[in-house]
TrEMBL record, chains A, B, C, D:
This is Four-helix bundle copper-binding protein. It comes from Deinococcus arboris. InterPro entries: Csp_YhjQ, YHJQ-like. Pfam families: Csp (PF03860).
């Protein structure tokens, strides 16, 4: 059987895309005039970026911890998506979408 | 209230000690004459090092994802301790002990 | 001006592709029958994966440390490419190519 | 000869202490009333934390990339120390001190 499977590869790609969106969003939030409103967004972007990076790497190496990693990554993505969706900045909206897609890809694998 | 609490600080310290033991063990395993026997140990050291590093950082920053992180870190430590304990190398025995203490510290916080 | 620039985006993409190739190669090497020959490859895959992940993240966030990061990432990629190129395994050959492209992308930015 | 040497172990310890101080400072800055003044501090804390974590791990595993890693880590620590020293918050002052000690430990090894 091919490794990684299509679902696994889709999840790895979603994690790396979400990592990129979260790093971009955190850095852009730190430049925004309404910084006061972006505290939670920056915090969650950081956690989500770290979780997505870790999860992608665990999946790429075929780690036996994958099931728990999906769950933790999906939780990070859900929290980040919910916060980002409340902000009108383009980087927040793009990040929310990347988080939703990553959470969904993690849940496909967990199922 | 002081931050971090004694239990939290103990867990952060245990994670960083375990990260160090796992990195040391993985590198030493890659130099061992009986490399053939060390495949699983190297794999689990890598995962455990990554999880300990992540968990320490999430705890230090007061992340809202802490509960799931404890569980995943404890799972990584349990798996790594079980494997390392089977090998007589000093670095494996030290790593097994660091993993057990880290798993225990994570469970104290989870309780 | 658009951020990231095309060269910057190309380097971020090359880093993430190389991270994936290095993680895949390290895990596959740990499964090879000729494990004895793969010690250096596993070591360099690990370092290169870590450096590529870090560099991608520093570039995505517009870090002021970018110039030094390019140089360190290119050095990691050069070393990993040179080692991987000596092994006939598909994962090693693919990793060597990803490393070469990432080193090149880092040098375009450094220039 | 013992591995790690005293200077190497001191540098690993300094990196892990600095990682902790930077994570703590970044999280605390994100809670400060004068958030507007802390933008650069948060950015540099993040970079410095990532570099200290990476450098500690490369040193622990005896990576061949150590010389370049010292230089990059020292640069991150210098930049973070200079910024943190300008803020009166306890977490900034403690972080500045940890950064100075880590930069110094990196330079001892580089010499």
């Amino acid at each position: 059987m091919a490794f990684p499977s299509p679902d696994l590869q889709a999840c790895i790609d979603a994690c790396l895309t979400c990592l990129s969106a979260c790093e971009t969003c955190a850095a852009a939030c730190l430049n925004e005039p309404d910084l006061e409103m972006m505290r939670a967004c920056i915090r969650l972007d950081r956690d989500c970026a770290d979780l997505c990076a870790l999860t992608a790497r665990l999946l790429l190496r075929g780690s036996t911890l994958h099931a728990q990693a999906y769950a933790l990554c999906a939780a990070a993505c859900d929290a980040c998506a919910a916060e980002c969706a409340q902000h009108h900045h383009d980087h927040c909206q793009r990040c929310a979408e990347a988080c939703r897609q990553c959470a969904q890809a993690c849940r496909v694998l967990a199922a």
